[in-house]
């Protein structure tokens, strides 16, 4: 019998204890907690991130999404929030990923790559020895107001598939994924994890019906 591949599911833009509990109940393996961003949905206060992260039981991963580009600022932010994972949504400008890992042993570091073209393959390859995973998203850092995630747009999954084939570390696939295209995303890219925000929300609130459809579609393959 052919083995069924079910990726880890990360539900992003978690805004409350109720949303965290609902996502976990429905089958999420990870939660995304969004700190200050130049644009996009789901931003919550540092205090709320800290409280939600402290309430989440192991082995659920808690991701602190940060737009900060200075390693010292990210360390300070994490020391307050205490998540078990840091998701860097922009490029570092001061300090390196190795500096971050040395300062925060035991904390997983995930770097976002915004897939814009074939150049994203080289960008991911150059980073794979310094981080624990890569998250492939559909933002645009070149805009006057940067898009660092939460766009609701898909990108070229063929490029994402090439990155997954080339890398030795896990990848998460994000950007415009929802219950109706989750199976296609899994079958085309075979990522370690899938990251969703707007695709499982109605009026910016986590939607139990959409979550149920999502996990049912994953189980059906």
What does it look like?
Helix 3 packs parallel to helix 4 (97-103). The chain is globular and about 45 Å long. The model has no long low-confidence stretch (mean pLDDT 95). The longest helix is centred in the last third of the chain and has 13 residues, at 208-220. The chain has one domain: Aldolase class I (TIM Barrel, Alpha-Beta Barrel). The chain has helices at 17-26, 46-55, 71-81, 97-103, 119-127, 157-166, 182-189, 208-220, and strands at 8-11, 30-34, 61-66, 85-88, 108-114, 133-137, 171-173, 193-196, 201-202, 205-206. By secondary structure, it is an alpha/beta fold. The protein contains eight helices and ten strands. The strands form two sheets. Strands 1-2-3-4-5-6-7-8 form an eight-stranded parallel barrel, surrounded by seven helices. The protein has a two-stranded antiparallel ribbon with strand order 9-10.
């Amino acid at each position: 019998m052919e083995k069924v591949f079910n990726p880890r599911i990360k539900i992003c833009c978690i805004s409350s204890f109720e949303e965290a509990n609902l996502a976990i109940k429905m089958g999420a393996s990870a939660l995304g907690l969004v700190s200050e961003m130049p644009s996009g949905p789901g931003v919550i206060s540092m205090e709320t991130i800290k409280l939600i992260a402290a309430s989440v039981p192991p082995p659920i991963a808690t991701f602190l999404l940060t737009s900060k580009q200075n390693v010292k600022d990210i360390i300070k932010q994490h020391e307050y929030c205490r998540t078990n994972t840091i998701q860097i949504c922009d490029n570092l400008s001061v300090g390196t990923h190795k500096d971050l890992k040395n300062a925060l042993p035991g904390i997983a570091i995930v770097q976002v790559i915004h897939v814009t073209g074939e150049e994203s393959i080289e960008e991911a390859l150059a980073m794979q020895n310094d981080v624990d995973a890569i998250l492939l998203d559909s933002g645009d850092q070149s805009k006057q107001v940067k898009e660092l995630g939460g766009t609701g747009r898909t990108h070229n999954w063929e490029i994402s598939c090439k990155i997954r084939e080339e890398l030795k570390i896990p990848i998460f696939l994000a950007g415009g994924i929802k219950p109706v295209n989750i199976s296609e995303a899994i079958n085309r890219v075979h990522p370690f994890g899938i990251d969703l925000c707007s695709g499982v929300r109605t009026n910016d609130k986590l939607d139990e019906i959409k979550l149920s459809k999502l996990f049912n579609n994953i189980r059906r393959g």
